[in-house]
Amino acid sequence: MKNSYNNIMIITPSTLKTKRLMIRQFTQEDFDNVVSFMEGMTSTSFNRLFKIIIDSYQCQEIVISYALILKSTGDFLGFCGLITLEDNMPMECYYFLRPEYWGNGYAIESLRKIFEYAFSELKLDKIVAYIDQGNTRGWKVAERSGMKYMGIILRKDANLKKKSMFFLIDKNDYYNQFQI
Q1: Structural domain harbouring 78
Q2: What is the spatial distance between Cα 8 and Cα 120, in angstroms, rounded to a whole number?
Q3: 81 forms bridges with which residues in the sheet?
Q4: Assessment of whether the complete model's pTM goes beyond 0.90
Q5: 66 φ, ψ to 5°?
Q6: Which helix (DSSP H) or strand (DSSP E) does residue 165 occupy?
Q7: What does each C-alpha distance from 47 to 38, 109, 118, 145 come to in angstroms?
Q8: Is 65 in contact with 54 (CB distance < 8 Å)?
Q9: What's the domain count of the chain?
Q10: What is the rounded distance in angstroms from the CA atom of residue 109 to the CA atom of residue 69?
């Protein structure tokens, strides 16, 4: 799929692979897995969210969303990706894993692959993450993925102001940490 971001043409691959994971675009067949993952959401709001993810592969807005699949079993682990929050702002990474797969390094492995793709193919200069202060696992994943903690910022989400931890990784830091 092709999109443009800051006048750069983005071609989103259908699949990325790591040693243990297949990181691929969602298909309609993933719906039941994602629904069970998002039990707390209402059916209507989740159905709308899932449709936005599927439709994003064909639209001009930049949303890169991938299903995380364990190669050895074919299990659906969760999802990750990149999203454009505002024009001329860095892309934000996101990641969600089913709780039974926490603590195995899958989120870290998937983010590092997303970073590799973003810096080498998309030619991005930096990627950010905003994580709730109480989400200890989330900020540990960000740090272990190579992101640097930059401080607390006040963000507006749905007309609410809330404090979030701000993490950043730039292309040079990524290559210095993970490339031989």
Answers
A1: 2-178
A2: 13
A3: 65, 94
A4: no
A5: -130, 145
A6: strand 160-170
A7: 10, 28, 28, 31
A8: no
A9: 1
A10: 12
How far apart (Å, rounded) are the C-alpha atoms in residues 4 and 9? 4
Structure tokens at 131: 């994580």
Q: pLDDT tens digits for 96-146?
A: 888 899 999 999 999 999 999 999 988 899 999 988 888 899 999 999 999
Strands 76-84 and 91-97: antiparallel
CATH number at residue 25: 3.40.630.30
The CA distance from 172 to 143, in Å, is: 16
Q: How many CB atoms lie within 10 A of CB 159?
A: 5
Closest CA to 69 of 112, 119, 26: 26
| Token pair recorded at residue 150 | 């930059």
